[in-house]
What we know:
Strand content: under 5%
Structural class: mainly alpha
Distance between the termini: 42 Å
Number of helices: 9
Radius of gyration: 21 Å
Order of helices and strands: HHHHHHHHH
Amino acid sequence: MNGAMWSLSVEFQFYAAFAGVLFTLALIRFSPAHYRVALPAIAAVLFVLVLADRLGQLVGSDPVPLAFIDYLWRFRFDFMLLGVGLALLLVVEIHDGPIFAPLLLVMPMAWVSVSEDQLGPGLKPVLDGFTTPFMALCFLALVYLARTNNAFAGQGTLLYRIMLWIGDRSYSIYLLHFPVMALAWMGIARFAPSIFNGAISYGVTQVVLVIPMTFLAANFSFEKVEGPFRRYGERWLTANARGR
C-alpha cells in the first residue's frame, strides 16, 4: 500500500468491495427492499466485529482473532462502514445542531491530545481501542446534522459560504492535491532547484503554487466531471424508482 496515499488506497478498496457485495446480491436476485436490509446488516456485523477487536486493544486482548478484521480496523474501514449506515438512515431535521456540532468536533480532538502518538512506535491501546471509534461516532453524528444544514450557525455569512464552496469540492481537492504537489515539485526541480535549499523558501513557494492550482483543478473537476456524473446518477435513480 502506497504510504503517501494510503487513505486513497483504502477508499478504492472499499469501493471495490462494496461493488462486489452489490454484484453478489444481484446474482441472488435481491429485491430493492431486501437491499435496504442486507447492506446495513452486513455493514453492522462487520462494524461490531471491528469495534469488539478495537475495544480488546484496551485490555491487551484479541477477541476477534481474524487477520481480515485486524486489517479493517488498522486502516479505519470502520469509518466507511458507518458511512453505509448513515447513507441509509432516514433524514430527521434536528434544530439544535449548532449546539452539538462544536462538541462533536472538540471532544475527539481532546481525546486525541491525551492518546498515544499516531506516528510513535509500539502499541496504542487508547488511540486504537477508544479514541478512534469515539471519533468515528462523533463524525457520524456531525455528518448526520450536516445533511440538513443544521450543523453550524451563520449560514448567511461569507465565511460559511466559503467553507461550503470548499466542502462541495473537498473530494476533488482530496483526489488532486497530491498530483498537483508532485507537479509543483517537478517544476521547482526543473526551473528553480535552488528553492529546495531553504525550508522557508521551499515551503512558501509550494503554498503559493499548490493551493491556487489545487483549487482551480478541483473546481474544474467538480463542475465538469463530478457534478455531471452526480446529476446523471440522480436521474438514473429517479427513473428506476419510477419504473418500479
